[in-house]
């Protein structure tokens, strides 16, 4: 984990940050709520995190890099459940009141303290290998669409379809372990538009008239998400002359892609002349975001990312954790896109949408 002194605010957040930015979209409580009693929203989210314990425990048990993994996995499950129970008794315990960042951070801390560095490594590697083999076909299918607007919509649908590979959702972890997931079938079976937040038509109109000089793209999961969803979209931006910075996690968290993993994937996908299926990659940069959670607080990013992002004119936050649960209402000094699939019933309820609904939020900054 990077030390506090090395972390800085993301330079494109609207200032003053203190009054303009709050890194959790869904308020678990309001100032008028009794600080000693948990709110109904807190209880619902504590239960959601509790429901994820069995799938995390199962992954941890089979981590061959950790000695005595089954015993330590049981310790993790017990410790995390106890802390979640404590929050229900006293929301101000353990650094509370809880929000999605704190609940994620405590889960990661317990795993790391017990020696678990990356319990999803095996499934990430398997999914990356599958997605790498499908990448050329997915790109060709997109390239074959001549109409620019239809191609853009297909690329966006690919991001949503890829984003379903999320083992932080208890239901999806169950479906995944049972049947796996077909990327192309998922593309076809997205919920019909209009999506719960649907600025796609506005964005499509801008896309036809405007080009951005530099885009910073906060990426989410390994496998189909980053390889079949994000990278074809990033490649399309590169074709249009946009410099693209892909920002990935410093440390592993759930099945999110990490900076070293993304560097390796890109090197596997490039041909001998350094191209990504015919597209030059000299304007593709990969940055370590400094983050170590499946959500992100943009007041704390690496200096490297802050430096690379300072002159960007488009920020894209992808995935439920970064794009919806923590930064849906984040305001930037430049254009921004928040793209993600709704994979928790609690998020669907908050947004007034359906489970597996899609969020495509575009904000343009004029001038």
Number of helices: 15
- Structure summary, number of beta strands: 11
Series of secondary-structure elements, N-terminal to C-terminal = EHHHHHHHHHEHEHEHEEEEHEHEHE
- Measured between the Cα atoms of the first and last residue, the distance is 38 Å
Helix content: 40-55%
What structural category arises from helix and sheet content? alpha/beta
The radius of gyration over CA amounts to 20 Å
> What is the average per-residue confidence, as pLDDT, rounded to a whole number?
94
What is the general shape? globular
Largest sheet, order of strands side by side? 2-11-10-9-3-4-7
Q: Sheet with the most strands? A: 7 strands, mixed
Organism: Hibiscus trionum (Flower of an hour)
Domain Damage-control phosphatase ARMT1-like metal-binding: 50-359
Keywords: Hydrolase, Manganese, Metal-binding, Nickel
Protein name: Damage-control phosphatase ARMT1-like metal-binding domain-containing protein
């Amino acid at each position: 984990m990077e030390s506090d002194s090395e972390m800085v605010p993301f330079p494109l957040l609207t200032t003053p940050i203190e009054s303009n930015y709050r890194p959790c979209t869904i308020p678990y409580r309001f100032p008028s709520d009794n600080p000693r009693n948990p709110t109904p929203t807190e209880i619902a989210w504590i239960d959601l995190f509790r429901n994820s314990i069995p799938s995390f425990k199962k992954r941890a048990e089979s981590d061959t890099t950790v000695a005595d993994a089954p015993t330590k996995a049981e310790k993790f499950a017990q410790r995390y459940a106890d802390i979640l129970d404590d929050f229900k008794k006293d929301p101000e315990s353990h650094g509370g009141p809880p929000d999605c960042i704190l609940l994620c951070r405590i889960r990661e801390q317990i795993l790391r303290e017990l020696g678990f560095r990356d319990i999803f490594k095996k499934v990430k590697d398997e999914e990356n290998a599958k997605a790498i083999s499908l990448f050329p076909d997915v790109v060709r299918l997109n390239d074959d669409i001549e109409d620019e607007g239809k191609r853009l919509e297909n690329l966006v649908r690919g991001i949503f379809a890829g984003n379903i590979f999320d083992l932080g959702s208890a239901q999806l972890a169950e479906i995944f372990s049972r049947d796996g997931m077909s990327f192309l079938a998922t593309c076809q079976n997205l919920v019909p538009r209009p999506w719960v937040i649907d600025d796609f038509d506005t964005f499509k109109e801008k896309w036809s008239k405007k080009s951005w000089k530099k885009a910073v793209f906060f990426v989410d999961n390994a496998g189909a998400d980053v390889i079949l969803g994000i990278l074809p979209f990033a490649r399309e931006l590169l074709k249009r002359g946009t410099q693209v910075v892909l920002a990935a996690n410093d440390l592993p968290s759930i099945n999110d892609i990490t900076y070293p993993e993304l560097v390796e994937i890109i090197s596997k996908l490039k041909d001998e002349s350094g191209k990504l299926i015919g597209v030059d990659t000299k304007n593709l940069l990969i940055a370590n975001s400094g983050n170590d959670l499946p959500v992100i607080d943009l007041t704390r990013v690496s200096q490297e990312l802050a430096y690379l992002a300072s002159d960007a004119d488009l920020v894209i936050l992808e995935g439920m954790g970064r794009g919806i649960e923590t930064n849906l209402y984040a305001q930037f000094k430049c254009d921004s896109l928040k793209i993600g699939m709704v994979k928790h019933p609690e998020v669907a309820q908050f947004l007034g949408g359906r489970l597996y609904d899609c969020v495509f939020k575009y904000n343009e900054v004029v001038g």
